Amino acid sequence: MNSKFKIDSVWENYKLHITKEYGFIDLSISPFVIKANDTLLKHNCKKAIDLGCGNGRHSLYLNSLGFDVYASDIDCSKIIKNTKKLNLSNLTIREHSFTAIPYDDDFFDVVLCTSTLHHAILSDIKQGINEVYRTLKPKSYFVFDFLSTLDTSYGIGTEIEKNTFIGSRTGEENIPHHYADENELKALLNNFSFANINKSIYSFYDSKNNQYSSRVFDVIAVK
Ligand SMILES: C[S@@+](CC[C@H](N)C(=O)[O-])C[C@H]1O[C@@H](n2cnc3c(N)ncnc32)[C@H](O)[C@@H]1O
Q1: Distance, CA 45 to ligand 1 centroid (Å)?
Q2: pLDDT at position 132, please?
Q3: How far is the CA of 172 from the centre of ligand 1 (A)?
Q4: Nearest to 37 by CA among 14, 8, 56, 53
Q5: CB of 116 closer than 6 angstroms to any ligand 1 atom
Q6: Is 60 in the pocket of ligand 1 (CB under 6 A)?
Q7: Other residues' Cβ atoms within 10 Å of the Cβ of residue 141
Q8: Is the CB of 74 within 6 Å of ligand 1?
Q9: pLDDT of residue 11
Q10: Better-predicted residue by pLDDT, 37 or 171
Q11: Ligand 1 neighbourhood includes 176 CB (under 6 angstroms)
Q12: DSSP characters over 148-181
């Protein structure tokens, strides 16, 4: 642990608490990320980028586990606000798109990208995956999830290109969502030497306490 903030507990509900001393944040961590972390630590991964980090929940989680974390998003205001008081070492925040990753070739041991890569049209997703591949070291890990065509929101809204909809998901009405099946994901990852693709269902609640479930693919690909 090289972080200056303290995790009270990461327990079954996958919640990360940061003590009141630094400003209280209560963030839930994806169980997939917790599980993937076993593989990453086993292979001595150190340098990780969290692409589309949002509020920074996974950046903070990886940082607390000793990773050297590069957090990025097209809008970094949330993670900047959440980490302002923490004075963390080994956390670099930089605003950019996943379609243009401003780091050298073979730079990262891990690229993490949760609930983000499908927020684009297919050409941008392909460009993002090329950028991930370029910036990953050989034999390093791309850990991400991707919306499935089996998700209940598939088909809602306006289809702007095949399997890409605007207006399909509550709270994200103006953002494109691309839905993939397993074959498409395999094709997108064809440069990678290996890809473990698992189907998952996650439940979550909106601000009005309505429950939703999300059908996604959880993927660990190796360059
Ligand atoms: C649903 S949030 C997920 C945030 C975080 N990864 C998590 O799991 O909590 C999607 C995030 O992707 C970001 N985003 C959308 N398009 C992006 C792009 N082209 N490049 C980088 N980030 C993007 C959004 O700003 C938003 O913060």
Answers
A1: 23
A2: 98
A3: 11
A4: 14
A5: yes
A6: no
A7: 24
A8: yes
A9: 41
A10: 37
A11: no
A12: BTTSTTTT-SEEEETTEEES-STT-TTSEEE-B-
Instruction: Output the residue whose Cα is nearest ligand 1's atom 4.
Output: 54
Handedness of CA 6, 88, 113, 118 (dihedral sign): positive
Ligand 1 centre from 93 Cα, in Å? 14
CB 33 within 8 A of CB 114: yes
User: Atom 3, ligand 1: which residue's CA is nearest?
Assistant: 115
Cβ-in-10-Å burial (0-12, 13-18, 19+) of 165 comes to buried
Domains annotated for the chain, with CATH where assigned, are 30-222 (3.40.50.150)
> What φ, ψ does residue 59 adopt, rounded to 5°?
-60, -45
Least confident of 70-74, 132-136, 154-158, 211-215: 211-215
pLDDT of 9: 45
